[in-house]
């Protein structure tokens, strides 16, 4: 069951990263600008945020399984619509639906784990989810770069539709209902408001959730801007960009593996603090480099690697600490965690392109601001 949950949580990141090498190609094919094409990322992330917010809260009353089945079917349908999109407007709308459906898988996977585990056990499982799920960013850009030439960006969305079909089989055959009927809350506006109020009044939950969301803002600034920075400014080909992205993702996998081994020996908060130090310091260096030596490729790229490395100590630990504060209404807590995470990602995505395609300053500046705010939120959690 756990492997099926990991795969479900990795499907949405795969839908983000698989077509990243083809973003410039999408812009040319649909006769639009790179900035407009980046809106396919923005709407996807916004859809993920809204999907998690609604689904998590509803799952506390309806259970997890039926929503997982519906969300996986919607993901398949949205992927087909993306593959057939005749214009950038249709693609943006289809990506919104795809993100909504992908968000359902993420929030419900977290809720299922929270139904079954607490404390260090939950932290270990969330870290393992990050470890296994992080293989999606490793494989996706390489696979996307390989597939882009023979099947094009539309073919990549057909591949995602096929992956969604496999996920549907996994849900139907491997994942039972984990929230018993006697533990479910009735669904009404009053009950939903009470659940959200209960979670939001917990200051530690809010602080850890803000830490996660802002750290993910750093990560998504990198995800949304790096195809243009690496290819347009540094002159790398799509396949070379895929390799750069993959190397950084390997760092994320290694850090997640180390983090998993350390849980139980080192306090989860300490590990989270280490991750935030790595993210903050490397983001500052990237900003200095972008302002002073904007084309210093072989200096810039190693610090991007350190930034992504820090995420391996940040994501799983912040999720575990936050959701542990809301275990009685895990679906609602998971919903707020995911909604804040991906709504912020949707906000930062257009910000990194404000300066145009010829500078990495907006990306580095956005990363630095988000990292500083994440560190401040972490300090407030005490």
Question: What can you tell me about this protein's structure?
Answer:
The chain has about 375 residues and is mainly alpha-helical. The chain is about 80% helix and about 0% strand. The mean pLDDT is about 85.
Structure summarized in a few sentences:
The protein is an all-alpha fold.
**Unreliable spans:** none
**Averaged pLDDT:** 83
Largest sheet: none
Secondary structure class reads: mainly alpha
**Strand percent estimate:** under 5%
Number of helices: 16
Note the gap between the termini. Answer: 35 Å
User: Got a strand count?
Assistant: 0
Helix percentage: over 70%
String of helices and strands: HHHHHHHHHHHHHHHH
> Which overall shape is indicated by the principal axes computed on the Cα atoms?
globular
The radius of gyration over CA amounts to 19 Å
